[in-house]
Amino acid sequence: MTGGRDRFAPRALEHLVQAIAADALGVAPRDPAVRISDAAGALAVTVRSPVAMPPLGDGGADADGQDLIQRLAAAAADTRARFAELTGLDVARVDMRATKAIITERRVR
């Protein structure tokens, strides 16, 4: 028996990356803007998105102690791994760019 080929519409791939990146960055699924291009036979993904972050008074780090740069690097690695796992496609790189911070405020009662 021979293996088949799966074909994905480009828009479906963009929507998938958008959802994965939104989850990794803590924002709404509609927030990330995604572009997928060819990188010598593999995929190169560019994501421009807001990033959910705690207030600066909390030291500028999230719950895991990561600053913005670390958060973007971790989100890019997570997005690359999850996208490749779900599609079986070769992902050369994922570039993440923050467009703004969405401050996640803690309310005290």
Average per-residue pLDDT, rounded, comes to: 86
Number of helices: 2
Across the major sheet, the strand order is 1-2-3
Amino-to-carboxy terminus distance: 64 Å
Q: Helix proportion of residues, in percent?
A: 25-40%
Radius of gyration: 16 Å
Q: Structural class of the secondary elements?
A: alpha+beta
* Helix-strand sequence: HEEHE
Cα shape: elongated
Strand content: 25-35%
Q: Major β-sheet, in short?
A: 3 strands, mixed
Number of strands: 3
Q: Residue ranges: pLDDT <50 for 5 or more in a row? A: none
What's a quick, concise take on this entry?
It is built from 2 helices and 3 strands. By secondary structure, it is an alpha+beta fold. Helix 1 packs antiparallel against helix 2 (68-87).
Structural description of this entry:
This protein is of the alpha+beta class and 109 residues long. Helix content is 33%, strand content 29%. It has two helices and three strands. It has a three-stranded mixed sheet, with helices on one face. A hairpin with a 2-residue loop joins β1 (33-39) and β2. α1 (10-25) packs antiparallel against α2. The longest helix has 20 residues, at 68-87. It is elongated, with a radius of gyration of 16 Å. The N and C termini lie far apart (64 Å).
